[in-house]
Design goal:
Helix content is 36%, strand content 20%. The chain is of the alpha/beta class.
Length: 320
Amino acid sequence: MNSLPQLKIILCSPRGFCAGVDRAIQIVELALQKYGAPVYVRHEIVHNKYVVDGLKTKGAVFVETLSEIPDTSAPVIFSAHGVAKSIPKAASQRNMFVLDATCPLVWKVHVEAQRLFNEGRQVILIGHQGHPEVIGTMGQLPAGEISLIETESDAKDFQTDNPDNLAFVTQTTLSLDDTAKIIAILKDRFPKIKSTPKEDICYATTNRQEAVKQVAPKVDAMIVVGAPNSSNSMRLVEVAQRSGCTKSVLIQRAQDIIWEDFSSLSSLGITAGASAPETLVEEILDAFAKRFTLEVSNHVSARENIVFNVPKELRNKKND
């Protein structure tokens, strides 16, 4: 009987769901329990197909625009990524019953952008064009009043008539290192540029990237469990590659593993983006256990105990 090859697996911790994702999913599930199906959700509640498909089977209906929703008294939920100010306004005009699942840390960026604009500052957003969080943040201010910078090149080329009155905010799921370089360029070019009092990149993004930085140099390959449209998951792949693990890949499900790529490993790191459930990590571990004799360890770089409350409409009366 042939024995299976040995494989050392290091699990990055923290990994997977953050408090904002956990809250958003809870909002959909609690709304379904309280009000019954259907519950309408504008955009994927979080960027993970497994999660979205699971909620669909329970009665959630996902749409990209409010116009897709019929006149209804059913709850309409905004995703964790946040929305432009025009969206709640349009919902109100149709008398929709809205439950807002915007992550509180994204909401904080919205508030800061508005505050800086109210101070008369020209606001810059560092982020990725087209990402729903960026669309939502830019939509907090009047059209044309917030400028998007994606790259170091953008930061070098940015022009303004008011260099002494600039301010910036950032998307919450960016690469810490990339963003630091962009900010350094802006501060060098515009010494009076103002930032928010606290870092906009969220604690979960920071912690997951730090864990990957610590594990990546120790392993032959790294798997990031997550979705290709998940910004924080894609950044984890980049961080792993830059930290010395060139064979770092994004995988959604165990069935997506290309086994030839992992045939000659002695060590593997695994992490998960903030919208990827732990059950998918377990699924991938099970798949490797059929082909290798595993030695699994946990590398803990931080501990997270943050919890965000769901909207009051969904709270248990005795907990109010």
